[in-house]
């Protein structure tokens, strides 16, 4: 159910995150005052396969990585990357 003031954001998923969901980009519905932290929670709720990655996903807003407190708006470029390991 859409609540007045909610917004939809488009999120590009990369690497393992895209593999787990099966598509990219995805649309996520968020409250009007959403931030990166609420995006992480919404992604895990909408796509349960992402839940284990949720706290570790790197979220970029525009060209910069973002912290959980950063506010979001529907016109921003948002991308999620799983953490990278290797050596």
For this structure, the quaternary state is single chain
Shape: globular
Largest sheet, in brief, is: 5 strands, mixed
What is the rounded Rg? 12 Å
> What percent of residues are in strands?
25-35%
CATH class: Alpha Beta
CATH superfamily: Beta-grasp domain
Task: Please name the CATH topology.
Answer: Ubiquitin-like (UB roll)
How many helix segments?
A: 2
- Helix/strand class: alpha+beta
The CATH architecture can be named as Roll
Please tally the β strands and state the result.
5
Could you write a compact summary of the structure shown?
This protein is α+β, with helices and mostly antiparallel strands. 20% of the residues lie in helices and 25% in strands. It is globular and about 35 Å long.
Q: Topology, please?
A:
Blueprint: E1 7-13, H1 16-21, E2 26-30, H2 36-46, E3 58-61, E4 64-65, E5 78-81
Parallel strand pairs: 1-5
Antiparallel strand pairs: 1-2, 3-4, 3-5
Provide tags for this entry.
single chain, about 90 residues, alpha+beta, Ubiquitin-like (UB roll), 5 strands, about 25% strand
Word description of this protein:
With 87 residues, the protein is of the alpha+beta class. It has a single domain, classed as Beta-grasp domain (Ubiquitin-like (UB roll), Roll). The chain contains 2 helices and 5 strands, in the order βαβαβββ. The chain has a 5-stranded mixed β-sheet. β3 (58-61) and β4 form a beta hairpin. The radius of gyration is 12 Å and the shape is globular. The model has no long low-confidence stretch (mean pLDDT 90).
């Amino acid at each position: 159910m859409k609540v007045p003031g909610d917004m939809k954001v488009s999120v590009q998923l990369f690497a393992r995150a895209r593999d787990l969901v099966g598509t990219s980009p995805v649309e996520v519905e968020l409250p009007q005052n959403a931030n990166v932290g609420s995006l992480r929670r919404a992604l895990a709720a909408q796509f349960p396969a992402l839940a284990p990655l949720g706290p570790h996903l790197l979220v970029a807003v525009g060209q910069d990585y973002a912290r959980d407190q950063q506010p979001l708006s529907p016109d921003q470029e948002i991308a999620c990357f799983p953490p990278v390991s290797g050596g």
